[in-house]
Amino acid sequence: MSRLVWLFFLALAASMPGSTIAQDSALQKLLMPGRVIEGHAEIENQCASCHTAQSSVTSSSLCLTCHENIGVDREDGTGFHGKMATAKNNDCVACHTDHEGRDADIVNRNDGLFDHRFTDFPLEFAHADLSCASCHAADAKFHEAPLTCAGCHGNDDPHAGTLGTQCVDCHTAKNWFDYDFDHADTGYPLTGGHAQVACVDCHRGNQFANTSRTCSSCHAVDDVHKGTKPGTCASCHTTASWSSLSFDHALETGFALLDGHADLSCGSCHQREDHKDDFSDGCVACHRSDDSHQTLNGQECGSCHKPTVWSEGYFDHTATGFELLGGHQGLDCQSCHTQDISIPIASECSSCHLFDDAHAGSIAQDCGSCHAADDWKVASSFDHDLSSFPLIGLHAVASCGSCHTDTAFGSTESTCASCHADDDVHKGALGNECASCHLPNGWELTRFDHNTSTDFPLFGSHKGLDCGSCHTSDADTRSDVPSSCGGCHADDDIHEGAFGNDCGSCHNSSSFSELEKAIGSWR
């Protein structure tokens, strides 16, 4: 029915004597365009609840008379009708029409296109993927859905309501199990190892109120001191880990934990649970079993040993006047100090090496004049040139034992024959002064000058002859060697001695066949 027809009947009814629109309900019902929805059924016969006499269109002001909550939203800018511009400013009938039957849907909501940002509960994070039915019950109006966490998550609350309903104080919409509660707000910030601890590890049974803040309330089973240490655990331990200590050992005890001591556990030194051990004996209190000196060196271990490594000593032996060099450097203290370290010992070599003396005391006790500390068996520092027999030529490379057949070096003879008797091809015939002919650079090398050292200078063919050519085995001494020509050339004398032994009166030494004088002169 058109609006014009509707206005006609209203005017006709108004012109009838003693009649009004409000009184003539039968006429209004007759003119009604259709049945209203089930929710409006109770006021279906009360047209004035929605319509004015001047208009057939539903008045928004009349709608809001019943739907007060919508009016409040439009006024306060809350809810869908307060946040959505068209819903706030347009007449209600722009979206909602009635008289279309009891089962008509006058809300006309498209769940797939509905933008939840125009509500008091924007869908963020985990809420964004939820279906409408997850929060909106089928038998309730959409605007009646709860806005608090507890409204939906009451059954998920492990705290059983003991912490109130402001879940967002700790939890976020990203994940119900994620929380950003700042524990520092409680006056007990979670630092170090506490930062990774689950809430229930301290708050047993999800009881958060009146939780004890003392270390022992949680760590009693970890207390190796079994309650014997006074004060709080925090005076020594840190929250980084139970084994991390903040105790200043140097400040509190006067004994700084350095080097090898730095990484030791308390129990390495403190045998008592209350840590009141007696350390009046110093290092020995802990290292008595490590004392290889068996207390012979006293109890001032720190004067020699470092806390870095017990086996490393740093005592400067040079301060004693006896510097440890060569083979002495690696020796253990007890190698020389066989008694208490306070008892002085002699610094002479013989005081330690008496039984090592291969010379059996035949040489002066100053072993260092020949031997070095690097190797006792090598006489590396003795200068033989300072003795009565300097080593020159091949003697310089000869071993000591080549001449010194025993360890009594001072009794060794210095004559050539004492060593080279077996090498003397002259069998002693030329005496013991071998050096008058031979050189020390080689036995076969000689320096004997026959022309100046004898009465028989070697000229001509004599000059190139070997010694043995004249000095035969029959010549035991120099005096046995003949100096006349006939002494060597008797067998070569074709004159058979007729001219005597003075062969040089005719012949020369260059060649026996050459003559010095003409033969015809005496014919």
What does this protein structure show overall?
This protein has helices at 3-15, 25-31, 60-66, 68-76, 79-83, 85-89, 149-153, 199-202, 215-219, 249-253, 266-269, 284-287, 349-353, 400-403, 416-420, 450-453, 467-470, 485-489; strands spanning 438-439, 442-446. With 523 residues, the protein is mainly alpha-helical. A two-stranded antiparallel ribbon has the order 1-2. A hairpin with a 2-residue loop joins β1 (438-439) and β2. The radius of gyration is 66 Å and the shape is elongated. Mean pLDDT is 80; it is low at 17-22 and 518-523.
Write the layout of secondary structure elements.
Blueprint: H1 3-15, H2 25-31, H3 60-66, H4 68-76, H5 79-83, H6 85-89, H7 149-153, H8 199-202, H9 215-219, H10 249-253, H11 266-269, H12 284-287, H13 349-353, H14 400-403, H15 416-420, E1 438-439, E2 442-446, H16 450-453, H17 467-470, H18 485-489
Antiparallel strand pairs: 1-2
Helix pairs in contact: 3-4
Mean pLDDT: 80
Strand order of the largest sheet: 1-2
Compute the number of strand runs. Answer: 2
Total of helices? 18
Beta-strand fraction estimate? under 5%
Uncertain ranges: 17-22, 518-523
User: Can you write the helix and strand succession as a string?
Assistant: HHHHHHHHHHHHHHHEEHHH
Q: Over all CA atoms, what is the radius of gyration?
A: 66 Å
Tell me the major beta sheet. 2 strands, antiparallel
How much helical structure, as a percent, in the residues?
10-25%
* Spatial shape: elongated
Distance between the termini: 202 Å
Structural class category: mainly alpha
